[in-house]
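EI: anyone free to look at a 564-residue chain?
SC: sure, send it
EI:
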Amino acid sequence: MSSSDGTNLEELQRENWSLLKDQIEYIIGNADEMNIMESFKQLFEVNVLVGQRLLVDSILKNQLKKDIPVVYALLVALINSEMPEMGLLMTKESIALFIKGYNNMNNLETFTMATFIAQLFNYEVVHEIVILQILHLLLEDLDNGSLPVVISLLTHCGKKLVQVNKTIHNAIFEKLRHLLQSGRLSRDEHVNLEWLFELRSRNYQNNGIQSTNLKVLEGEMHTFMIDTGELRPDFKLTEFIYDDNYVEKETLFESLKLKVYKDYFEEEKDKAETVIEDRTGITDVEFKKNIYLILKSSLTGDEAAHKLLKLRIPDDSKDEVVNIIIKSSIQESTYSKFYGILTERLLGSHRSWTPAFIETFKSNYENASEFEPAQLRIMGKLWGHILATEVISFEIFLNVHLNEEESTPAGRILLKFLFQELVGELGIDELRNRLEADSSKSYLVNMFPTDDLENIRYSINYFTAIGLGSLTEEMRDKLKSIEDELKQIKVEEEKKRQELVRSKKEEEEKDRRISRYNQKPVSRGPRSRTPPRRSRSRTPPRRNRSRTPPRRARNRSRTPPRRR
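SC: here you go
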């Protein structure tokens, strides 16, 4: 093999490892009491033989997070029956995590791993010696708060311990009885220990722990000697390691997958590669399940697209397929190019897929409030990639009304991530050119409005707030033009108003004059009456009147007085 071939193979393995990690994490993250067998089946739709370290890591992390040991222990038991090396690795890592938590006084790790190991013992993945070593470790150090762990461990696996080694079981309880009678326990410890003895007397019935009667084929039981000083968990389980036997493992996995289907799913005639040719007689649930399995069993988007196109799905069912693709993509922790390539291939295969994608985007936007912010981010990135590749036009925005009344906060968040992805893939200048193209404008009239002043301002403010204000230059010019036009209209209206007021005043003044000059006497009856006297004008002050100068006194003689 040449060096270039080796490099290409390593790149392929690395890419497949990343996809395998996402697929396994999704399956384990969704496993619960109701779908254990379905999860088991899904794990063999991907190459779990290559990814068994990823599987161990994912199960342990989910057990620490969710603490559902019955589910994960049963899943491990099912896989252990076909892949005992995975069961051994799980035993080592779970014990190592338990020891780590115990030494560091980490109650979360201690309790969740103790109950998980107990359930592995119940399903005969772990040998009784492992349980006895753990109990011995805990009982030797009861003063360190280990009694609650002992009680939890025996609650989970006491019944199984009675069945496999009753003598050891009874010896443990004798030691616990002495402790109960010693008076060294706190009130809570005393009550809990009494409850354990009561549970033992009922043969561990009604212990509050769910169990299952699912069939598990006999697998290899693993014994592991605990060394508290040397045992360390492997924190590099998810790191990629080049495998020289990768091709051989691929072939071996195909044989293993057929065996699993024969052992556990005999009633199903279809194997892992079989897909639905039509939907006749198949329920919607089964149809969606098979679409989902195709997505999760494909290592690349091209492979998934090829499998889906082989189904020849009717046009009226394509929107369901697109909806499943979108919902699967947002269940990932981050945006995966797997789904971008898949949608690109589907849209590029035939134009009949376009209406399904348009309808799905409309639904996503209208119901955006139903999704978490992280899901909206992934969804926005996926739709942004689809638009950037030009496999679909801006027609999907026809029903997006970007204004205060018709948009929602969640919908605006979706658009934000979508446009940011478009800018990331195309660049701001190329995106602006596409948006301003004549072929696009008819689809963007509601997102980039040009007729309503309030809507224009709202759209400008929105894109400016998300850092894409340069996309609004055309709207800004239009806004300025409209504002100038409105200002001019107001000026003209004010002139007309003032002219009207002035004209009205002049008219009123004219009317007053006419009324004053045309005023006539008012007739009060048939007889004419003398008009009222006009008030006399007063005589002006004497100083203003001409005065006749006084006569001179005459020199008239006066009659002399009579004589007496």
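EI: Confidence is low (pLDDT under 50) at residues 269-282.
SC: 👍
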